[in-house]
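Protocol step 6 of 9: fold each sequence in the batch and record its structure tokens directly after the sequence line. For illustration, a two-sequence batch is reproduced in full.

Sequence one:
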Amino acid sequence: MRCNAIAPGDVNTNIGTTMAEPNEFGAKRAMSGSDNNPRSGDPEEVAKIALFLASYDSGFVNADVIRADAGWLAY
């Protein structure tokens, strides 16, 4: 048995469309404060990681967390 995880960063989805608009202290402003700000990801990019983890090609990968955040954790 293998156990792996995906830790996505900001991904372009409609998950927050029913929420109130962010105010001036919102996450988008906090994330946009750097010229080196990574871009938002596409759902297809995260899906490709999930497909890899579900495939035989990842048979040697175990107990790992794959970050898909365009390097945001490094900031």
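Sequence two, same batch, same settings:
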Amino acid sequence: MEKHIPKFLIEEDVIHLKISCLSLRERALLEFLYSTGRRVGEVEKINIEDLNWENCSAIVNGKGSKQREVYFTTECKVRLKKYLASEDSSKALFVTDTHPT
């Protein structure tokens, strides 16, 4: 049985995605996903307390309930801080109007 080879985004695609982000939340979420390579299902479980601002890292519960430390870029850190400054306090890192994401 042939294995599925994942497709990766080229830099031009990422630039177009960044331009299409309409909110601070969308931009921060995109930067976090792109810089860490995490799945949406993993990111939606991250709480603010899981972030380590000093070394730009986060503790993520990955596939198989394994905890991993992942690193994000300085640009991502800036986007996250701008987003969090614009939000009401919440435990979850990414929040929607209806429920945490």
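Proceed to step 7 once all outputs are recorded. Observation for sequence two: The longest strand covers residues 57-61.
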